[in-house]
Design a protein that fits this description.
Blueprint: H1 4-7, E1 15-16, H2 21-31, E2 35-39, E3 45-50, H3 51-60, H4 82-94, H5 97-100, E4 108-109, H6 114-124, E5 128-132, E6 138-143, H7 144-152
Parallel strand pairs: 1-2, 4-5
Antiparallel strand pairs: 2-3, 5-6
Amino acid sequence: MDKAKDIMSSPAVSVKEDQTLKETIKLLAEHRISGLPVVDDAGKVAGIISDTDIISYSQKINVVPTTNLSGWISPYTDVSELATMRSGMETLHETTVGEVMTKKVYTISEDADAGEVARLMSRRKINRVPVVNNKGELVGIVTRADMVQCMANL
């Protein structure tokens, strides 16, 4: 059976807690991904930041007026709200990753088998699992897409 190290994306794109959400949003868009591990100076996983975290935070600070819980801008947004949105975007961009990230992170050893990774993702309802070495340092990440690719290769 495949191990996490065989199916993970490596190196994992990551950010640090003191980086801004503006930098993070650019990385997410550039790499066409929906989440990133957050690492400390020693390369150990300190959290996870996802597009869901960013959208939820933007709603809390009223960056994006919405008419439902989907998190997307309503096509009926009043033009007068654009100045408020601009101010909110500036606040969002200046916010650090550490203020928004999910701090409870489930990681997996690079030697864990693919079934263990799948069970963890299913049980915890998570979309990505950082993979760490025996020193606890980030070496990769297994995403849902990686799991699908693994299944397709069986």
